[in-house]
Description:
It comes from Clonostachys solani. Pfam families: Dabb. By secondary structure, this protein is of the alpha+beta class. It folds into two domains: 1-30; 35-148, Alpha-Beta Plaits, CATH 3.30.70. It has helices at residues 2-23, 60-76, 115-123, 126-135; strands spanning 46-52, 87-94, 106-112, 144-148. The protein has a four-stranded antiparallel β-sheet. The protein is elongated and about 85 Å long. It starts with a helix and ends in a 6-residue tail after the last strand.
Amino acid sequence: MKNRSSLVCAGVALILLITVFLYNPRHPFTVPFYILSDASGLSSPVTHVAIFKIKPSTRAADIHKLANGMMELKEKCIHPIWERPYIRSIHGGANHAAETKSGITHSFIIEFDAVEHRDYYLLTDPAYQKFQEDVKDYLDDDIISIDFQHGKYT
């Protein structure tokens, strides 16, 4: 009888342990694959170019707020497993190209160590999702973006 109750207790404890392990939001099986990389071997770095068409009626103070918000994403976008920033760099500014007649006002270049990190940024990252929500009223159009991997032409 004592062996049977010990076995039942051990079984219940094992089930609880497995349940906690599998339903932990930081556990690898519950997090999308594309954020698990430390970028050592998954894919090569990727550059994401975000192009903005800010409404002409937008005040300068709001443009600075938008630009600062974009630049702050480098520190605000936190990898859910490592719990540290995963964006390699962000650069950007106002458009000064004389040949541009399309209404493009600003662009930002965001570099990631891996395509998987870029995918997490665009599809899941709560800081980026909030940024998109915060700036949508200032934009004439959706954010235009292009992505490329250095040296890959096909």
